[in-house]
Design brief:
Elements lengths: L11 E7 L6 H9 L7 E6 L6 H5 L5 E4 L13 H9 L9 E6 L2 E2 L4 H12 L1 E8 L12 E4 H6 L10 H11 L3 E12 L11 H12 L3 H13 L3 H14 L7 H10 L2 H6 L1 H9 L4
Parallel strand pairs: 1-2, 1-4, 2-3, 6-8
Antiparallel strand pairs: 4-7, 5-8, 6-7
Helix pairs in contact: 7-9, 8-9
Length: 285
């Protein structure tokens, strides 16, 4: 429901990054401009597109930036955080209540931010997202994620340039005792199926991230099984585990890794193996 006074709205700033997304970007930006909460700031970062992505983005009142480094595809790589940070630095965080990140192919319902921020305030949560139609998850997704200003400042107002940087935002909040919420009844859509363009070697990087964050072996192995369940093939399964075992020195801080190790330790899994296995098999990460 629209409020009569615009000053009653929470102030939200959003960053969208795109690389050759001419087929998708119009619908994504159009949905942002139709939100029942008017977004205070929208930063659009073009990651060196060679198609009409920027031309289409110019149809909207967004601040357009071009990421200055020429590079290959950084999906699943830690360097992708640099592209996000390039846009996030442009947000005037002091004038906002929430920061959000939206993928270039992510179409949000028009009341997305109104629903999400209202429930975040009620639940006293600092990180939250809705769901993508047809997917099941347990933690806030990367795209569509909303972060409170206070927590965003607590972690330095930037994403860590390391493997698993999106997961870091959630688990660090948990470690610090904050609430994190995934609202599976706030449904969004994407223009293409998540991870449809992923190559098996990208799962090496995800396995590498699991070790960087401190996830135990059994939890990681169950994640690898999920790849088989989702039809990603034995090659992706193998790359994922190889990535985990190959990471011997790229770690997050010990306090965070110890928190994750205890939260997902083998004893907790084995205390209710059937129940835990059912959760894993019904979860899409």
């Amino acid at each position: 429901m629209m409020k009569e006074n615009i000053n009653d709205y929470p102030k939200i700033g959003t960053v969208v990054i795109a690389r050759n997304e001419a087929e998708n970007i119009y619908d994504t930006l159009d949905a942002l401009f139709k939100q029942t909460i008017p977004l205070q700031q929208i930063i659009f970062v073009d990651d060196n597109s060679t198609d009409d992505t920027v031309k289409i983005a110019k149809n909207f009142d967004v601040k357009i930036l071009t990421f200055p480094e020429i590079h290959d595809n950084w999906v699943s790589r830690p360097e992708l955080a640099k592209v996000f940070n390039y846009g996030l630095r442009q947000l005037d965080v002091d004038d906002l209540d929430f920061v959000s990140i939206v993928g270039a192919d992510h179409i949000l319902p028009h009341n997305y931010f109104e629903q999400l921020t209202r429930r975040m305030i009620t639940d006293n949560s600092v990180v939250a997202s809705g769901a993508i139609q047809g997917e099941i998850a347990t933690v806030p997704r990367g795209s569509g994620r909303v972060i409170s200003k206070e927590y965003w400042k607590t972690i330095g107002s930037k994403l860590p340039v390391n493997f698993g940087f999106e997961t870091y935002v959630c688990v660090k909040a948990m470690q610090l005792g904050f609430n994190v919420r995934y609202y599976d009844d706030i449904i969004t859509k994407t223009s293409r199926k998540t991870a449809i363009t992923y190559k098996p070697i990208m799962y090496y990087n995800y396995g590498y991230a699991m070790r960087a964050l401190g996830y135990p072996l059994l939890h990681t192995f169950l994640r690898a099984i999920l790849l088989l369940k989702r039809g990603k093939g034995l090659k992706s399964f193998r790359f994922f585990l190889n990535g985990y075992f190959s990471n011997n020195d790229t770690f997050y801080e010990n306090s965070l890794r110890n928190f994750i190790s205890k939260r997902y330790n083998t004893r907790r899994v084995l205390s209710n193996p059937i129940g835990k296995f059912k959760i894993f098999m019904n979860t899409k990460y």
